[in-house]
Amino acid sequence: MQARSAWNLIFLGTCLRYLQDAQAEWTPNSPWGIVKNFDQFQSSCDALELKVTARAARNSLGDVIQKLRVLDEAYKLTPADASEIRTKMTEVRVTLEAEASGSVIYRTSERRYDTTKLMGEIDKLFAPGTVAGMSDFALYDFGEAGRALAFGLPTAVAFHLLRGTEEVLRTYYRSWVRRGRMKTMLWGPMVFELKALTGRQTPDRTCLNNLDNIRVAFRNPTDHPEKIYDIGEAEDLFGLCIEVVNRMVRTTRGVGAI
């Protein structure tokens, strides 16, 4: 899915109306004259993927515009020029209305988190440097969680958040446990082993307690099909996972351990 600016819709309508209102004595090659408006109409159609309308405009008015494009900037439309442009753009409008009637535009609902960041700037929701400390797998899951939240899919949000957090936990575990690592790294046993570490430097206790809380309250129930999240729960979990991942990356042994 691609983000598209609403400005393209505004421009499309503005250019269409201008071309439909073409009058004799207008200078078609002025900075925002007939030629420029036609070009912008085409660009807006392309941006909005209105391919049929764009083709209809080229077929109807392309030759006319090309002839006007090479004329002197002082040239003014004749009554015949203006009438032809108005007539052909009215025909194009019929095509536009037919094509647009089959297109649907969705608008995301307001969330606690900025939609732009959820849709493609997920790194900005984490502390500076956190994303750089993640694997590609973790970053993928957090990106999917952001998009799922933007589009109101709370159970999918939870699924991807927990996958991403567990992937970061595995990296965290490997940084602290250098010998005798478990072959199958599971959330609960990893946290238990990290809590059991002793010495001058040990993992962040608050981080481990938060990981345990997420495991019991969210991770384990999510494994069962009976658990269905609502948006509020998903947003709560989003905040918890961001906080604990920030802590893990910040206190990874050999990177920024405290």
For the largest beta-sheet, the strand count, sense and barrel status come to:
none
Q: Structurally, how many domains make up the residues?
A: 2
- Our estimate of the beta-strand percent is under 5%
Mean pLDDT rating: 90
C-alpha termini separation: 41 Å
The string of secondary-structure elements, in order, is HHHHHHHHHH
Radius of gyration: 29 Å
Would you kindly provide a written description of the structure presented here, covering whatever features stand out?
Helices cover 62% and strands 0% of the residues. The mean pLDDT is 90. The two termini are 41 Å apart. The radius of gyration is 29 Å and the shape is elongated. The protein has 258 residues and is an all-alpha fold. The protein has two domains: 94 residues, Four Helix Bundle (Hemerythrin (Met), subunit A) (Up-down Bundle), CATH 1.20.120; 136 residues, Four Helix Bundle (Hemerythrin (Met), subunit A).
Compact description:
The protein is an all-alpha fold. It contains ten helices and no strands. The chain has helices at residues 7-20, 34-47, 51-69, 79-100, 115-120, 136-150, 154-176, 187-195, 205-222, 231-250.
